[in-house]
């Protein structure tokens, strides 16, 4: 269970983190650009899936995607100026945060399981990282309204990924996985590990 959650966090952080790579002034950031960024992020997800299938046909889809996505994430987090790398890391973190505090809750609700306690546990654990990420994104010109539009646009993709992961998290399928999140919210929240390079860039002074 713990390993699956760690895997999910790393992969989503990498692929959706691409959204934050555009350097924009406050006047340039608007809902339309957020929609454009969503389109490019979705395209990158499909590119990673295709590359994973081509390069690693002998592995499971999830194993192959993890390898390719981690490679892409390392490249992305090392590109550009220090400020640009911080924006990338902040965007990546927020993708992880939104997924675990919102998408998991939404998907499990559809299975009749209330995991809002898990969402709250994740929120508490990563409160400092969230504040740091939002500060970086705010300095880059992305206010919270625009970011909310971006995450809402991305939510169908995030939810779809979450549904697939929950199916594989526990032998009993998504219902059992959701029950674990409901029954052990703090333990599972503490097991989530962010990408090492992402954390280093995000926390750099």
Unreliable runs, pLDDT <50, ≥5 residues? 13-29
Distance N terminus to C terminus?
34 Å
Helix and strand sequence: HHHHHHHHHH
Structural class: mainly alpha
Strand content bin: under 5%
Largest sheet: none
- Tally of helical segments: 10
Count of DSSP strands: 0
What percentage of residues falls in helices of 4 or more residues?
over 70%
Overall pLDDT confidence: 79
Global morphology = globular
Radius of gyration: 16 Å
Structural overview:
With 205 residues, the protein is mainly alpha-helical. 79% of the residues lie in helices and 0% in strands. 41% of the residues are buried. About 8% of the residues have low confidence.
Structure in a nutshell:
The protein has 205 residues and is an all-alpha fold. Helix content is 79%, strand content 0%.
Task: Give the arrangement of secondary structure elements.
Layout: H1 2-16, H2 31-55, H3 61-78, H4 82-110, H5 116-125, H6 127-139, H7 144-169, H8 174-183, H9 185-191, H10 196-203
Helix pairs in contact: 1-3, 1-4, 1-7, 2-3, 2-7, 4-5, 4-6, 4-7, 4-10, 5-9, 7-8
Provide the descriptors you would attach to this structure in a database record.
10 helices, mainly alpha, 205 residues
């Amino acid at each position: 269970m713990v390993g699956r959650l760690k895997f999910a966090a790393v992969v989503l952080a990498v692929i959706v983190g691409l959204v934050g790579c555009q350097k924009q002034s406050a006047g340039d950031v608007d809902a339309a650009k957020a929609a454009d960024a969503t389109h490019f992020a979705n395209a990158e997800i499909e590119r990673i899936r295709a590359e994973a299938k081509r390069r690693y046909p002998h592995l499971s889809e999830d194993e192959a995607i993890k390898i390719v996505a981690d490679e892409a994430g390392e490249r992305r987090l090392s590109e550009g100026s220090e400020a640009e790398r911080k924006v990338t890391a902040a965007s990546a973190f927020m993708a992880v945060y939104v997924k675990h505090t919102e998408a998991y809750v939404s998907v499990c609700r559809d299975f009749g399981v209330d995991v809002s306690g898990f969402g709250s546990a994740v929120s508490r654990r990563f409160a400092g990282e969230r504040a740091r990420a939002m500060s970086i994104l705010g300095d880059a010109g992305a206010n919270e309204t625009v970011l909310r539009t971006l995450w809402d646009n991305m939510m169908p993709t995030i939810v779809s990924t979450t549904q697939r992961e929950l199916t594989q998290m526990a032998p009993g399928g998504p219902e059992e996985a959701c029950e674990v999140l409901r029954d052990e919210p703090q333990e599972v929240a503490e097991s989530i590990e962010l990408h090492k390079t992402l954390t280093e860039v995000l926390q750099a002074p």
